[in-house]
Design brief:
This protein is an all-alpha fold and 247 residues long. 78% of the residues lie in helices and 0% in strands. The protein has a single domain, classed as Four Helix Bundle (Hemerythrin (Met), subunit A), CATH 1.20.120.
Length: 247
C-alpha cells in the first residue's frame, strides 16, 4: 500500500497510468450520465406535488453532489501537500478547482431554475443556497490565490491552507436543512440510506451521479496531465514524450 502511495506521488508514473484509464472513464461516464439524464427527463414519472418541474433534479443533484465531493478531495490533497509535500497533490488541487467552480455554478443555476416554480423566486438567502454560494467563492479564491503567487512551493502551501480553512463549509452545506428552518428540501438521495423515491426516480438519479463522477475522473486526469507537462517540461521524460508526439 505504501509503495503504491509513493508511486502515486510520481508525476511520471501518474502520467503513464492515468492514460490507460482515461478512455474508460470517459466512455463509462458519458454512457451512465446520458442514460440517467435521458431516463430522468423523458421517462421517469411525474412528481405528485411538483409535476414535471422536479425533473431538473437529474442535473441539479449530481452537480451539487459533485461540487461538494471535489472540495473534500481537494482538502484531502491539501493535507498531503502540507504533510508529505507531494507535488502531485498540489497538481490535483490546481487541476480540479476550476471544475469544482463550474459545477458549483451549475448547481446554483439549476437550483434557481428549480426554485422559481417551486418557491416562486429565483433566489432567497436560504442557508443551503448561501453556503453553496460561499463554496463558489472558495473555489474562486483558491484559483485566484494560486495565480497570485509566482513561487510554486509557496503557492502550494498557501492554497492548501485556504482549502483546509474552507472545508468547514462542507458540513454546513450538508446539514443546513437540519440545523435551520430553510425552504430547501432535505436531501433527495443519500447513498447511506434507503431512497424515499420510487426506483423509477432514484435509479436514473444514481446513474447520473455515477456518470458525473467518472467524467470528473477523466477531466481530472487530463487537466493533471496538462499541468504535469507544464511543470516537468525540462525533465528528460517529458522531452522524450513531446518528441514521440511530434514524430
Amino acid at each position: 500500500m505504501w509503495q503504491f502511495f509513493h508511486k502515486l506521488g510520481s508525476p511520471k508514473w501518474f502520467f503513464g497510468i492515468s492514460a490507460r484509464f482515461m478512455p474508460w472513464l470517459l466512455a463509462g461516464g458519458v454512457l451512465l450520465l446520458m442514460a440517467g439524464v435521458v431516463w430522468g427527463l423523458a421517462f421517469a414519472p411525474k412528481d405528485y406535488l411538483q409535476g414535471n418541474s422536479y425533473r431538473i433534479i437529474f442535473i441539479h443533484v449530481p452537480t451539487a453532489f459533485m461540487a461538494q465531493s471535489i472540495y473534500i478531495m481537494m482538502a484531502s490533497a491539501a493535507v498531503v501537500t502540507l504533510v508529505w509535500r507531494m507535488k502531485l497533490a498540489d497538481v490535483f488541487v490546481k487541476a480540479v478547482a476550476p471544475v469544482g467552480l463550474v459545477l458549483t455554478f451549475l448547481a446554483l443555476f439549476t437550483g434557481a431554475v428549480w426554485g422559481k416554480p417551486t418557491w416562486g423566486t429565483w433566489w432567497i438567502w436560504d442557508a443551503r443556497l448561501t453556503s453553496m454560494l460561499i463554496l463558489l467563492f472558495l473555489y474562486g479564491g483558491v484559483i485566484a490565490l494560486d495565480r497570485a503567487i509566482n513561487d510554486e512551493k509557496s503557492a502550494a502551501r498557501a492554497v492548501a491552507v485556504l482549502v483546509l480553512v474552507g472545508v468547514v463549509n462542507i458540513p454546513i452545506i450538508k446539514y443546513s436543512v437540519e440545523w435551520w428552518n430553510t425552504l430547501h428540501q432535505p436531501a433527495s438521495f443519500k447513498l447511506t440510506e434507503k431512497p424515499t423515491m420510487p426506483p423509477e426516480m432514484w435509479v436514473p438519479l444514481l446513474l447520473s451521479v455515477l456518470g458525473l463522477y467518472l467524467i470528473f475522473g477523466w477531466l481530472a486526469c487530463i487537466r493533471m496531465q496538462t499541468e504535469i507537462l507544464s511543470r516537468e517540461q525540462r525533465t528528460r521524460w517529458v522531452k522524450e514524450f513531446v518528441m514521440r508526439g511530434r514524430s
